[in-house]
Design goal:
The complex is a heterodimer of chains A (150) and B (210). Chain A is α+β, with helices and mostly antiparallel strands and 150 residues long. Chain A is 23% helix and 35% strand. The N and C termini of chain A lie far apart (43 Å). Classes of the chains: A alpha+beta (150), B mainly alpha (210).
């Protein structure tokens, strides 16, 4: 291979690698501690009202009692639609009306305006199935919910 | 008027019939692989672009490669910069297309566009002024002051474009949250679907519970 072909080839290879790393980039979209409070764990029990299946984070909406006992709308951040699908969460398992229990951490901003926000760690379904719903490698507390934590 | 167009772009364009039909924008945002691929490519091409323009700008400032003629360095490096720029613009446009209204009402994005415009205008000025007599200073370790200033503006504005772009991932100032009045104005939150909530007004009515 001549020298002049090396640079373009290296560039094209690097860009092709995007196919492989793209999903991982999206998973580590932002650091946990920038928006969520690792010292404010929440346990939310309620019926799913809506799920936004969007990148880079899906959002699960539910009416649930917060730490103060007041029932409000919560939106819980999950992984990408892709990571959720691979861990067994999709449009059919998380239909509106499904009763779920979510473990997670509330946002640093606790004003609950317009709705309360949390980072989801795992979600339990009516059949007892418990699935990790977050993203790995964001710096969230190592609480045992992420099977990829070492 | 811009906002109406973006509403159509986000919610209507490419939408088929049926209750669950989604527009092309919504399909991209909800895609399993495409969005991540586009974002990954945006970041990688950005690295190629910024990494190479860094060398050219530092040479023009007179900080590095002082014994290499500017024309030699440009000929070797600028094609890679242009290549990266092309991918960066295409993927950037696609990422905007996936969430146009979010970015429209986003203070980081608006600031990013300002510095992006500054960087592009700077390129035009460089070509109209400094580039014309390049043979005079091509071999100089330190190009003329005007050239060095234009290179410094280029470097600073691209760095700001990248930093501001990075902050778009954080939702501290999203419309609908209690945020300072001036941020609501800058983001035109009043016209957003989440509305404008002034932090000072929230504090005046005695906080927000919990």
């Amino acid at each position: 291979m001549t020298k002049q072909f090396f640079a373009p080839l290296a560039i094209v290879t690097a860009l092709a690698c995007a196919a492989l790393v793209g999903v991982n980039v999206a998973q580590a979209h932002h650091a946990f501690s920038a928006e969520f409070d690792g010292k404010s764990p929440v346990l939310l029990r309620g019926k799913v009202s809506k799920v936004e299946w969007i990148n880079p984070h899906a959002w699960v909406h539910l009416m649930a009692a917060g730490p103060d006992g007041q029932v409000r709308e919560w939106m819980v951040e999950g992984g990408t639609p892709n990571t959720l699908l691979r861990s067994g969460i999709d449009r059919n398992t998380l239909k509106p009306g499904t009763e779920i229990v979510v473990r997670g951490y509330q946002s640093k901003d606790k004003s609950c305006a317009p709705v309360c926000k949390a980072n989801g760690r795992d979600v339990a379904f009516p059949d007892g199935r418990k699935v990790f719903m977050g993203s790995s490698g964001t710096g969230a507390p190592k609480d045992g919910s992420d099977p990829n934590d070492k | 008027m811009i906002r109406e167009f973006l509403v159509w772009l986000q919610d209507q364009w490419g939408k088929g019939a049926g209750d669950t039909a989604q527009s092309w924008s919504q399909q991209l945002l909800g895609s399993l692989n495409l969005w991540g691929l586009v974002e990954g490519t945006h970041l990688l091409s950005l690295m190629l672009f910024a990494g190479t323009i860094l060398f050219v700008d530092l040479r023009l400032i007179g900080a590095t490669f002082q014994r290499t003629p500017v024309s030699v360095l440009s000929r070797r490096i600028l094609p890679m910069t242009v290549f990266g720029f092309g991918f960066m613009v295409i993927t950037g446009a696609a990422l905007f297309f996936a969430k146009p209204l979010f970015y429209y009402h986003n203070i980081w994005f608006r600031a990013k566009l300002i510095f992006l415009a500054l960087a592009l205008v700077n390129i035009v000025i460089f070509h109209l002024r400094a580039h014309r007599n390049q043979q005079v200073w091509d071999l100089l370790p330190k190009p003329p002051t005007e050239t060095r200033i234009l290179a410094a503006i280029s470097l600073a504005s691209w760095l700001l474009v990248i930093i501001l772009g990075r902050f778009m991932a954080y939702s501290w100032f999203d419309c609908g949250k209690p945020i300072p009045h001036w941020v609501n104005l800058v983001q035109e939150c009043k016209t957003s679907e989440h509305g404008a909530v002034d932090a000072s007004a929230m504090a005046a009515i005695g906080g927000t519970g919990s």
